[in-house]
Amino acid sequence: MPRLRFETARDLLEAYPQARDELMIEPADVPSLTFLDELSKHQVVDKAIGFCAYLLPRREAVWWGCQSVRALAPPTDHKEVAALRAAEDWVRVPEEEQRLTALASGRQSDYRAAATWMALAAGWAGPGMPPGSLAGFEGASPAASDAWLPIPPDYTAKAVRSGILIAATKLSPQQRTESLKRCAAEGARIAAGETAGTS
After folding, report:
1. Alpha carbon separation from 192 to 1, 7, 90, 138, 185 (Å, rounded)
2. Residue 129, SS3 per DSSP
């Protein structure tokens, strides 16, 4: 596993300026892991989850997201189980075939399910989407179905964050806060290189 990607919170927000508005946080010259810990401690744990999703490299973010979903609200529906498994398969074997399988699984699953977002997170962890990926989406041009589409670099982080927060809605408010704090702490350990995770 790679070591910490962004030394400070400012470094992260300069690399992903859209995260500043999405998470409603300001750049600070504070070590990233300290910043993450402070977000968790001050009851803004949703922001901590989002910050961690951006802090981790895409592969580690997907793994962390999958493990968080399993801890918060393990899927029981067979499509959701398959979506989560597809994401985990890509983490274990991060090749194009596995990525596209995860993308297809995510696109065919319920967008209200946490596992769907983990599959999409894995599927979006590459340079592009294959022809037809936006077919049927409102506003997609006919030409969009004939060409590979570039994937913005923040899509995986956004999907991981969405999946974890969706999974957390299954818990009571008190359980939710404490469980998300544990997820953020585990993400911090992965970011620091303390957890092998994907083996």
Report:
1. 9, 11, 22, 41, 11
2. strand
pTM greater than the 0.70 cutoff: yes
- Give yes or no for a contact between 30 and 1, defined as CB atoms under 8 angstroms apart: no
By percentage, how much of the chain surpasses pLDDT 70?
88
Residue 189: CB atoms within 10 A of its CB come to 14
Contacts with 88 (C-beta within 8 Å, 6 or more apart), sequence order: 63, 66
Comparing CA positions, the residue from 184, 170, 179 lying closest to residue 75 is 170
Structure tokens at 71: 């801890």
Average per-residue pLDDT for the chain: 89
What does the radius of gyration of the chain's CA atoms come to, in whole angstroms?
A: 16
DSSP 145: G
Asked whether the predicted pLDDT for residue 126 surpasses 50, the reply is: yes
Residue (of 91, 89, 115, 86) closest to 103 by Cα position: 86
10 in helix, strand or coil?
helix
How confident is the model over 26-72, as pLDDT tens digits?
A: 989 999 999 999 999 887 899 999 999 999 999 999 999 999 999 99
What count of other Cβ atoms lies within 10 Å of the Cβ of residue 3? 8
Residue 45: which residues within 8 A CB-CB, separation 6 or more?
A: 39, 177, 180, 181, 184
